[in-house]
Structure formats: structure tokens, C-alpha cells
Write a structure and sequence with these properties.
Helix content is 25%, strand content 30%. It is α+β, with helices and mostly antiparallel strands.
């Protein structure tokens, strides 16, 4: 079993959040890693005291004030966001191009997620 550090970073490479995902298979698709990351975020959000402004992860629930967030629905939104270039995944020194790409967690100990902001008028 492997573990990976999942980081949210700015475009400048500054880490703004980090979580360790333990007990992962040594090889995993990018899609499954996104799903596991979202599941962890949602579990933490659901376990925290009710504060609608505290969800700062990869996706944002449309109604964060409700009592529980469905991680599977949020994972689908996150996977769709990858396809729309809402964020990029960096493994080591390269960008993941496809969610079906297999990541070797024996070699990659950290995965960075960088949320992209569309240019105004672009």
C-alpha cells in the first residue's frame, strides 16, 4: 500500500492546503485519485461543525448549508471540471493529461492540484 500527499497550490507554486491519503494502491488512475481526494474532503467537511464558508476544496457544494454533502456527486463534478480545464494535476514534474492515466505512487509521493481561473473576456 502507498500514500500520497495531495496539495492545492497557487499558479506560482505556493501550497495553500495539503492532506495525506494513506492506504492507496501502488498504481492508481488519476480519476480514482480525484475521487478519493474528494471523498476525503467531503468526509472532513461533513464531520466539521456547520459553517457554510469552510469548504475550500477542489469543488464547492451548490448548497453548503445543508447537513451532508454527497461525495460521489462532488467527485463527478470534480472529474467534469478536469475535462473543462478548471484545474490541472501535477505529478512530480509533469502535468496529468487524462483522467485514465495511471499514476505510480511508488514514484510519485505528492500530487498538486492547481485551480485555473479563466481570463475575463477570454
Amino acid at each position: 500500500m502507498a500514500q500520497v500527499i495531495v496539495r492545492d497550490e497557487t499558479m506560482a507554486g505556493r501550497a495553500i492546503g495539503e492532506v495525506v491519503l494513506p492506504g492507496l494502491p501502488e498504481r492508481i488512475t488519476a480519476r480514482e485519485l480525484v475521487r478519493l481526494r474528494v471523498r476525503e474532503e467531503v468526509a472532513r467537511f461533513n464531520a466539521a461543525p456547520a459553517r457554510p464558508d469552510t469548504f475550500g476544496g477542489l469543488v464547492r457544494p451548490s448548497d453548503p448549508a445543508r447537513s451532508r454533502v454527497d461525495w460521489e456527486a462532488q467527485a463527478e463534478i470534480a472529474c467534469a471540471g478536469f475535462g473543462r480545464n478548471a484545474y490541472v494535476m501535477i505529478v512530480g514534474d509533469r502535468q496529468v493529461e487524462d483522467l485514465d492515466e495511471v499514476i505510480d505512487l511508488e514514484q510519485a509521493h505528492a500530487v498538486s492540484f492547481i485551480r485555473l481561473t479563466p481570463l475575463v473576456g477570454g
